[in-house]
């Protein structure tokens, strides 16, 4: 049996007196497509930011690809990870954010090539070749020399996806990647993610309010509330026959707001 590529064991995350994640444990298998759903403030984005080491943990352990994320071997057992260890672990993970975070004064091609050249020492010709392949995959090869201000929101988000893929991560994290987009631009970004899900064996974690897409995309759906997993299962089971009252209430509100499930 394959081992989980992500093991989250009893993690706690606090911001002062506020506990956002409270003893959370979950596993993600290699190649699994996982959708994290739930109300705002339930801890979904915090999980992604912790995996990306943008936030630290207050307790517990996380393994990524068989290695501790926030700890490393010391002379007397596990010790907190140093920056060198964290940097190496970050290379296993890519993340696409809600608000693109592109460099505004660099062209699309430079936005995609910069990280591989700086962090992996890849020479410019090789980095540009790979970048053009990725831009072609997301349908933006003709925008390589454009700057972000010349792009639509959907195009910016597709560039952000290509940029994250340029580092060849084993795991991709998507944090509400369509929520800042005009409705007519959402589908072009979702189409890229559908292609990624169907054509690659990459492990993907998605935080989204696009329930219809989560249903079609995910192998497994986790419903979060107040820092805990309330219910998990296959998309058809969660969206059609949720067993927990809290899940049922949440989905009723989503449907009433006009979202497809």
SS-based class? alpha/beta
Could you give the order of the helices and strands?
EEEHEEEEHEHHHEHEHEEHH
Give the termini separation: 33 Å
- The largest beta-sheet arranges its strands as 8-9-10-3-11-12
Share of β-strand residues: 25-35%
Helical residue percent band: 25-40%
> How many DSSP E strands?
12
As a whole number of angstroms, the C-alpha radius of gyration is 19 Å
Q: What characterizes the major β-sheet?
A: 6 strands, mixed
Global geometry: globular
Mean pLDDT: 93
Query: Low-confidence stretches at least 5 residues in length (pLDDT < 50)?
Result: none
How many helices in DSSP terms? 9
Secondary structure topology:
Elements: E1 6-15, E2 18-28, E3 33-37, H1 44-51, E4 59-64, E5 67-68, E6 71-74, E7 77-80, H2 83-90, E8 93-96, H3 108-120, H4 124-137, H5 153-165, E9 171-175, H6 183-199, E10 203-207, H7 211-217, E11 220-225, E12 228-233, H8 235-240, H9 245-256
Parallel strand pairs: 3-10, 3-11, 8-9, 9-10
Antiparallel strand pairs: 1-2, 1-4, 4-5, 6-7, 11-12
Could you characterize the architecture of this molecule?
There is one protein chain. The chain has 261 residues and is of the alpha/beta class. The chain has helices at 44-51, 83-90, 108-120, 124-137, 153-165, 183-199, 211-217, 235-240, 245-256; strands at 6-15, 18-28, 33-37, 59-64, 67-68, 71-74, 77-80, 93-96, 171-175, 203-207, 220-225, 228-233. The chain has a domain at 97-168. It contains nine helices and twelve strands. A six-stranded mixed β-sheet has the order 8-9-10-3-11-12, sandwiched between helices. Helix 4 (124-137) crosses helix 5 and helix 5 (153-165) runs parallel beside helix 6 (183-199). The longest helix is centred in the C-terminal third of the chain and has 17 residues, at 183-199. The relative contact order is 0.16. The model has no long low-confidence stretch (mean pLDDT 93). One of its GO terms (cellular component) is plasma membrane. One of its GO terms (molecular function) is ATP binding. Its main location: membrane.
